[in-house]
Structures are given as C-alpha cells and as structure tokens.
Amino acid sequence: MYNILSLVFKYLFIFVIYFFMINIIRLIYLDIKGINMTTFDKNTYLKLINRKEALPFKVKEYYSVDDGVSIGRGNQNNIVIKDQYISKQHLKIVKDEDEYYLEDLNSANGSFVNGQRVMDVIRIKNGDRINLGQVEFLFVNKD
C-alpha cells in the first residue's frame, strides 16, 4: 500500500516540477517576444525612457519628430498620450533652420527639459530629456 502511495506522490511531484518549468519557459518566451527588436530609422525622434509596463496608459517606445509635433491628451495632437497629468495641448516641438525648439503651451503641470521647467521657447539638442506628466522622453537627433 505504501509503495503504491509513494509511487503516486513521486510521479505527481515530477509532474508539478515539469509543469512549473514549462510555465517559466513560456513566460521567458513571452517576455522575449514582447521586446521590440526593430530599429527606428528616422533621424529625429523621441524615445520613451519609462518602462511601458509601469505606465497606466498606452504609449509607444518611439515617436518620429520630423519637422515638428504637438503632444497632448487631446486627439488633435500628433502624439496623443492619455495621461491625466498631461494637458489637452501640452507642448510642441518645431524645427527651424535645422534646429529643434520646444514650447510649452501653458500646460497645467508644465514641461521640463533636463529637469528645468520650460517657461519660454527653448532649443533642444540630442540627448535632452523631456518630462511631461508621468512620461519621460529622450530627444534623439542623428543629424
């Protein structure tokens, strides 16, 4: 009787271990599959610094800037981010004579570049960090 019971528990234990290992392998696969391995071929773009999973709203990893963009919560913007701390029309980035400028559009919570609040139009350069609401972007200009 004890031999049969011990044999059943032995195989049950082996089954549980294999089930656990398969689930771990599946989670690793799903995590690797979720990594965006595509390269962004635009010359000027915003790269998300935050972890996407930590934000309570949808946001992309990369946004093309090209000749300029507007960012805000409202649907009329080029980049729409549904963050409650971002104004409907929060900021805009414009290109003028191969330079990029950021202007805060009188947003309630403000826009920050490298930790400094933007009070007027400022020139932004490659590597600047742009904070708005709960989101932080890295400005990349390969030109």
Question: How are the SSEs placed, and which strands pair?
Answer:
Blueprint (H helix, E strand, L loop, with lengths): L1 H33 L9 E5 L13 E3 L3 E5 L6 E2 L10 E6 L2 E6 L6 E3 L2 E2 L4 E3 L4 E4 L2 E7 L2
Parallel strand pairs: 3-4
Antiparallel strand pairs: 1-2, 1-11, 3-5, 5-6, 6-9, 7-8, 7-10, 10-11
InterPro entries: Cell_Proc_Reg/RNA_Proc, FHA_dom, SMAD_FHA_dom_sf
Keywords: Membrane, Transmembrane, Transmembrane helix
Protein name: FHA domain-containing protein
Describe this structure in words.
- It is a single chain.
- The chain has 143 residues and is of the alpha+beta class.
- It folds into 2 domains: 1-34; 43-138, Tumour Suppressor Smad4 (Sandwich).
- The chain contains 1 helix and 11 strands, in the order αβββββββββββ.
- It has one helix at 2-34; strands spanning 44-48, 62-64, 68-72, 79-80, 91-96, 99-104, 111-113, 116-117, 122-124, 129-132, 135-141.
- The protein has a 6-stranded antiparallel sheet with strand order 2-1-11-10-7-8, with no helix packed on it. Strands 4-3-5-6-9 form a 5-stranded mixed sheet, with no helix packed on it.
- Strand 10 and strand 11 (135-141) form a beta hairpin.
- The longest helix has 33 residues, at 2-34.
- 19% of the residues are buried.
- The mean pLDDT is 90.
Task: List key phrases describing it.
single chain, 143 residues, alpha+beta, Tumour Suppressor Smad4, 2 domains, six-stranded antiparallel beta sheet, 11 strands, 23% helix, membrane, transmembrane
